[in-house]
Amino acid sequence: MKAEEITWPGFKRKNGSPGIRNRVLVIYTVKCSEFVARRIVELSADPDVELIGFDGCTDNQYAVNMLISMIRHPNIGAVLSVGLGCEYIQPEWLSDIAEKEGKPNAWMFIQKEGGTSKTIEKGLRWVKETLAKLAEAEKVEMRISDLVIGAECGGSDYTSGLAGNALVGRFYDRLVELGGTAVFEEIVEAIGLGDLLEQRAANAEAAKEIRYTYEKALDYCKSVRQYSVSPGNFAGGLSTIEEKSMGAVAKSGTKKIEGVIKVSAPPKHPGLWLLDSTPDPYWMQFGITNPNDSEGLMDLISCGAHMVFLVTGRGNVVGSAVSPCIKITGNHATFERMSEDMEFDASPILTGEKSIDEMAEELMGYVLEIAGGKPSKSEAMGHREFFIPYKYQEKEVAFKRACEA
Fold first, then answer.
1. Which helix (H) or strand (E) holds 307?
2. Among residues 58, 93, 122, 144, which is most buried (max CB within 10 A)?
3. Rounded distance, CA 351 to CA 261, Å?
């Protein structure tokens, strides 16, 4: 059966974006409430109960937007927000947003509930009751054109650009042809390729957004005196940031780029989109870009990605909260050595055993299995990492330089 003919039952959402999972999201609104929220998740002993949160006590709109985007995410069916009681981000705000989204919700202040044990007990009781309700959730038919899929790379080696990222790029071409939505990020790993990206713009406005975003990323790298290349990349056979950039951009495929989106902003329509996660110019240089792979995955998920690809030549173990993570490697030795963590071996492209088109079709089949409910390896192992930092970023492309901030 052709990919476009395959359907599966998804979860109906009030905002019209169906989900491939139906999870209870437990959010802590400050580091002080993390322990209680985490214990609620752990004691629920249910893989459909997940944790995310923000450590900071003071205001950061970037983090607030991230939490709101997770509440609105199609894979989330219900939300419990847990606060201490004196932080800036108020759990009641988050609960109100979940209510508007038509999702079961509740919120608690540990100070008002009477401390650790009482809050955990109340929260666990609510979670168990809510899981029973979600078991009766309304379903809706989904197909490949409904999917939003994000991709980033981490722990890259010489195989990443030749096989792993190249495979994702070919898959993205097919996804876009079938009416789906593809999102790629890591503009700081496109240094030297500004003209190439701009030439792929779908229209003049997209070209303007891409050029500005590229120049902003270049300014950022210069300001921190660091480009996105690591000792592990060199050990894996990469020699320069330009070489790494060529491999990283390969995961975008060949389709026209519809425009640039910012963290926590969903794509405006199907097609291929560039996600900008670099901090925008600000007087106190607030935040850094891609401090770790978990942050990059959460950025993609905040834009509504139903699932995310993590391409890694050297290997990685992280998963992601909210959306399944599929880890792809072009290094067969890595796949063999870390087979319990790696999902997909793209190395047959390098050996000539299979064509890139054949491998893209195999990846398509695997994606449809995951979308249909099969747990990814990271899901099955309990890898649900997340990272939400302090950062400053406009909601849309701002077209201003550092001297104007």
1. strand 307-311
2. 144
3. 36
As a whole number of angstroms, the distance between CA 216 and CA 40 comes to 41
Q: What is the pLDDT of residue 267?
A: 97
**pLDDT score for 239:** 63
Q: Which of 140, 227, 159, 150 has the alpha carbon at shortest distance from 183? A: 150
pLDDT tens profile 271-302: 999 999 988 887 666 566 667 889 999 999 99
The closest of 318, 372, 329 to 364, measured between CA atoms, is 372
* Nearest CA-CA partner of 89 in 73, 115, 112, 65: 65
pLDDT tens per residue across span 229-252: 666 665 566 566 666 677 788 999
Mean pLDDT for the chain overall = 92
